[in-house]
Amino acid sequence: LKIYFLDVPSEQFSISADALIENGADGNYILPTDLSQQERKQKKWKEFNPARKHKDLGENLKTANLHAKKKFAAVESIETDDALGRDALLGMILSDDDAAAFRENEKHDFNVFLSNKIRLDRNVPDVRPPGCAEKSYPGREEKVSVIICFHNEAASALLRTVQSIVTRSSAGLIEEILLIDDASDLEDLGESLLARLRAITLVARVVRQQVRNGLIRSRIRGAREAIGAVLIFLDSHCEVNVGWLEPLLFEIALDRTAVACPVIDLIHAETLEYSASPTVRGGFNWGLHFRWDSLPSKVPSKTEPYTTPAMAGGLFAVERMRFIEIGEYDEAMDIWGGENIEFSLRVWMCGGSIKIVPCSRVGHIFRSQRPYGNDGKGDTQLTNSVRLAHTWLDGGHITKFFDARPEARLIQPGDLSQRLSIKKRLGCHSFQWYLDNVYPEATQNTTFSRVDAGGASRFTHKFKLRHLASEMCLNTNYQSKNDRATVTDCDSKGKRLTLYEPGDSSRAVVLGKKLCLDGGGECADSAGGGSVAVCAAKCHFNGGSQAWIYS
Ligand code: UD2
Ligand code: MN
């Protein structure tokens, strides 16, 4: 056993986290505990000057987390075969509470420690564009079934999702809230969840699935259980905002073939701060990865719904009978991924439309990676995409997908007869029609080919990327996503790049700060003159426009 002296102050974690709960405790997070229920209700969160405290809170937590992470990493790096010895060391360095809290955060990939401390019914800032509050949405009597699938979600995040719906939906519009448990095995999602749910509302119920079905079949299950006229799907870590419901229902009342999506606002994974998302629309690249595209021109009105070629997947409203009519989802799709593009193409190609409704806002915790495993099913985003490509990328367009992801050629899609019969029954348009009428920008996508891994299973390698013609090197100092990539003097200081090669998946070039080099990102079209700009984008390690060849 080696003994290491770790130069990390162990108090930092507990001090800052606890202190801020006591001191920071204000409207947007936790109201002071000495206020009566009535007083709490009367206090508006703005009176607590949340802007400043908000920031302090975030900063403190970032530091706290960082320290905990460092400590944990240091312990992890200690070489010993003796697991008990290592745990003992861990116990000495982190207090029991810290260690438990930290493990909890690691398990969920967001700050569960903070989530557990924050009131379920906290306020969120009303980030709707001006004008939304004055709008009226007459004549919708349809009742809604909200469907939330979850697999090992942090209980506080799940309950906060439910609480936000109860707090911020107009009375009488919610028929039921269906929580579809996708074979979770965390203790606080068991019996105790039911009691906590009942304390919030009587319209919620949990449907247990003993076998892991993945989010796609779980949603089908939810839709079949539902009785409301309209279905609204949400992820299990959301918070709906003021007035979120009516604008969605209104779009569907105008046109029952429309699928209405709220704007997906950002809930910071570390600070749980709620902030508005920019006005964007959804699309995809030829690897069939969803991406956000900028709006082609200035939108005429900040409050009017606008069409989107694709949706992110998680949050949308659809008339229940329409959802059934157009074939629910592809039941053969597993775990996660691909269903969002499949649904988007099917809705558009088969006579409907998808709209983003700026007056309807729902926050979502964006995590840097998915915290759960996939039961050894491999890259389900890829296998699901193969099914959708064979079904919907007709007229030879499937070759674009194969060019982007050569490994997809080798994957058998399985039985597609049912999906193809839906396409026939509904008399759907061709993919060419979709490209011409809905997503002309898709053809401007670029993807990068990749070489096979050739034996090496996983390695990281520090290097510089030199551009042959200019003799300059790729700059690695990017601050945020969508920064356009540039070249700089090869001698200049700066981090080296990392090549990341996870198993047989493709290689990503990591720029640091969780940013990867992306040839299909938001800045792709900004180069002009037929060439493609490369930008920094959030790493997804799924190949596609983030796959590169190292030679
Ligand atoms: C996005 C979508 C997500 C889904 C996915 C593609 C948003 C905000 N989110 O990814 O809804 O369309 O793209 O498939 O647009 N879950 C299960 N069983 C599983 C795996 C997940 O029930 O086997 C649940 C999970 O607990 C969560 C939901 O499905 O509530 C979506 O999963 P996610 O949050 O990991 O997906 P996300 O947001 O990365
Ligand atoms: Mn999610």
From TrEMBL:
GO biological process: protein O-linked glycosylation; regulation of Notch signaling pathway
Residue numbers of the full-length protein present here: 328 to 878 of 1001
Source organism, top-level taxon: Eukaryota
Cofactor: Mn(2+)
GO CC annotation, single: Golgi membrane
Source species taxonomy: Eukaryota, Metazoa, Ecdysozoa, Tardigrada, Eutardigrada
Molecular function terms from GO: carbohydrate binding; Notch binding; phosphatidylinositol binding; polypeptide N-acetylgalactosaminyltransferase activity
Family named by the database record: Belongs to the glycosyltransferase 2 family. GalNAc-T subfamily.
Protein name per its UniProtKB record: Polypeptide N-acetylgalactosaminyltransferase 11
Main location (coarse class): Golgi
Species in which this protein is naturally found: Hypsibius exemplaris (Freshwater tardigrade)
Protein's membrane topology: Single-pass type II membrane protein
Keyword annotations: Disulfide bond, Glycoprotein, Golgi apparatus, Lectin, Manganese, Membrane, Signal-anchor, Transmembrane, Transmembrane helix
Presence of the UniProt keyword Manganese in the record: yes
Entry's localization field: Golgi apparatus membrane
